[in-house]
Amino acid sequence: MSRRRWSIAGQLFALQVLVVSLLVVAGMTGAVLLARADVRSAAQEEVLAVAEAVARSPDVASALGSPDPATTLQPYAESTRRATGTNFIVVMAPDRTRYSHPNPALIGQPFVGEIEPALAGRAFTTINVGTLGESVRAVVPVRTESGAVIGLVSVGITTDAINRKLFAQAPALLAATAAALALAAAGSWLLSRRLRRQTHGLGPAQITRMYEYYDAVLHSVREGLLVLTPDRRVALINDEARRLLGLTGADPVQERPVADLGFPPAVADLLLSGRAAHDEPMLAGDRVLVANQRATSFGGRAVGTVLTLRDHTELRTLASELDSVRGLSEALQAQAHESANRLHTVLTLVELGRTDEAVQLATAELTLAQQLTDRVVGAVTEPALAALLLGKSAQAGERGVELVVDPESRLDGHPLPIGDLLTVVGNLVDNALEAVGGTEPPRQVRVYVGATEREVQVRVGDSGPGLDPAQVTDAFRRGWSTKSAGRGLGLALVGQVVSRYDGKVDVTRPAAGGTLFSVRLPIPARLPIPRESPT
């Protein structure tokens, strides 16, 4: 269990120490073997050089021809051995009889070891076991001027002596090994410390579990999530964010700059700014999104920015419809109140015996109401759109605004989905009512709705102060508004419908003043499937 709880940094440190230790041990072993081979090679070269020097000495050749060679050769060989630091110098006859040896008792006895190549006139080195133990030795022939072999010289260094030379180098080798181990351990510790900071001391099992849980959560939440690095690159994006931003699963997003991904302008501006946002509405294609953004940090260090997105398209549509219904309800209440006042006036006139004036007043009110109803219903056979215009007319009357439906208006059947028509007409009328609010009388809003074989036309004009042409683009693209924060999506919703049908919207300022919005929506051969409202 303790091994399972080891952090990745701890496991990596232990693994690195083990690997480095094995490498250092292997390297030390190799260095020892190479040093041993070098020492032996140097010993072979040394004994061969000493043997050739002794064999070429005139004194040796002269002594070999004397009646008692040992008398001369033993002192000469020993002095040379001590001078060169070798372990033995043996001068012998071709029949192996020794004339010199470090152990005088062995003089006169046969030499132990290989000498055949030297008898053939060729110097050589070999490793043999003799009276002094295993040794590296060289055997060189002693020749006369005519080239005849009259004796042999063997010079050797024992293996024990070679090993002592090798052991003399051991402290330096051990010091280098210890330094390498210390340096590798320090490097491993620094690397593990950095990795511990990066993984927050978590083990592999914990990281795997966290990844599985977080991945499951990110892909299952119904809220779009987008995480950016401090340099404004996408670090993480979940499935809902891809859907809301119009990205497919095949679009490469991770590690790419936000500016290169073609996000909707409002979303891209918010991401690039890095500012905090709380329930901020914005447009993304044909969707109305609510965004929340905040910078994140860990241990006082900025790690990026987190953006969450919620789809409020249907909610905004329903809210707009609810506002229309609420306005209609308030208008009906006001009309009921006004009707009650007029009814009391008529009754009072009757009680006062002024029946002609009572009939005239009641008839005039009924005529005006019936004319408005007949004009709207006669021009627009779509019940929902006709009801919307009647409601807006009552709402306009409550605000002291005259809503005029163009007598040329005509809309039969269902050329487009009624939801889209209500969105366009309702929001344009609401915008016009807002524009004329607070202006000097007469306040008027004019509406035209018509259709040809190819398109539906909607025109809504007002007598307000007029919209600055420089603000038209922002009014549709960004949901710009002169009203208080959190509103101003009416024209943006109109722009969404126009974009969905590849239509056209024109904003002009007539000579008479005010603003005229003209919308043209082509009638497609196959109508778009409207989104279902939430139940």
Give me some keywords for this one.
3 domains; alpha+beta; rod-shaped; Heat Shock Protein 90; protein histidine kinase activity; Beta-Lactamase
Largest sheet: 5 strands, antiparallel
Number of domains: 3
Let me know the average pLDDT. Answer: 77
Query: Which stretches are poorly predicted, pLDDT < 50 over at least 5 residues?
Result: 529-535
Write down the overall geometry. rod-shaped
Number of helices: 15
Structural class: alpha+beta
Q: Record the strand order, biggest sheet.
A: 6-5-9-8-7
What does this structure look like?
The chain is α+β, with helices and mostly antiparallel strands. It folds into three domains: 9-168, 2-Layer Sandwich (Beta-Lactamase), CATH 3.30.450; 221-311, PAS domain (Beta-Lactamase); 315-522, 2-Layer Sandwich (Heat Shock Protein 90). Helix content is 49%, strand content 20%. It has helices at 8-55, 58-64, 69-84, 116-119, 159-168, 170-199, 204-220, 239-244, 265-273, 313-351, 355-379, 383-398, 418-436, 472-477, 490-500; strands at residues 88-92, 124-130, 133-143, 149-158, 224-228, 234-237, 277-284, 287-298, 301-311, 402-405, 444-451, 455-462, 504-508, 515-522. The strands form three sheets. It has a five-stranded antiparallel sheet with strand order 6-5-9-8-7, with helices on both faces. A five-stranded mixed sheet has the order 10-11-12-14-13, covered by helices on one side. α13 links the parallel β10 (402-405) and β11 (444-451). α11 crosses α12 (383-398). It is rod-shaped, with a radius of gyration of 54 Å. The two termini are 52 Å apart. Residues 313-525 form the Histidine kinase domain. It comes from Micromonospora pisi. It is found in: Cell membrane. Keywords: ATP-binding, Cell membrane, Kinase, Membrane, Nucleotide-binding, Phosphoprotein, Transferase, Transmembrane, Transmembrane helix, Two-component regulatory system. Its EC number is 2.7.13.3.
